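Reopening closed ticket. The problem is back. First fold of the pair:
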Amino acid sequence: VQLVESGGGLVQPGGSLRLSCAASGFTFSNYDMYWHRQAPGKERELVARGTPAGRFTYYPDSVKGRLTGSRDNAENTFYLQLNNLKPDDTAVYYCNVYVGGRNYWGQGTQVTVSS
């Protein structure tokens, strides 16, 4: 299993980013996928979950209405659109998947929101 995130960067408050997670080594279309984030000095937190059918659930109230998840099962890619970004969204964003009872993580992509 391999997960590779991309798409992070430095953005001003109010800006947008689209994160990608390229997956390989498992049957992507069969699995729920997750996005987590970890801000400096804080614990990693779940921000979104996507089912194989493309249904998404978003978790902290602070992100609801600003995040949109999607997935392309033909391209084995999982996405997270971040809109109206705030400085508190600054974090490393990770995708992960549970396969065979094990939790696999990507290396993360840094999102920095600052003016």
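Second fold of the pair, where the issue appears:
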Amino acid sequence: QLQASGGGLAQAGASLRLSCAASGRTFSDYRMGWFRQPPGKERDFVAAISGDSGIKTFISSLKGRFAISRDNAKNTVYLQIDSLKPEDTAVYYCAADSRGTWAFWGQGTLVTVSS
């Protein structure tokens, strides 16, 4: 089970840190990812991190403002978003990769960025 949190209303230029807490399985066994779905658009990949944090993957257009990290002792993955822009407004989802498929999803947390 995945529980995302940390979303809310923020002004452009501010920062937010999203969290996703996992339960029920061995967290460090799973590659974790973040996705986002802007209003009226499809859900897109944002970033992923391997179980041991050794490999991080980002969509190229977001690299530099977004950072992904995890704390396996807390069963939590984070997404740090800096210099927020109105186009970052979206529902952000965390997901767990099982055998190459994003098999488990959190419920999403809404980020709204005002200009």
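Update: turned out to be a display glitch only; the data is intact. The chain has a mean pLDDT of 94. The first strand starts at residue 2 and ends at 5. Please close again.
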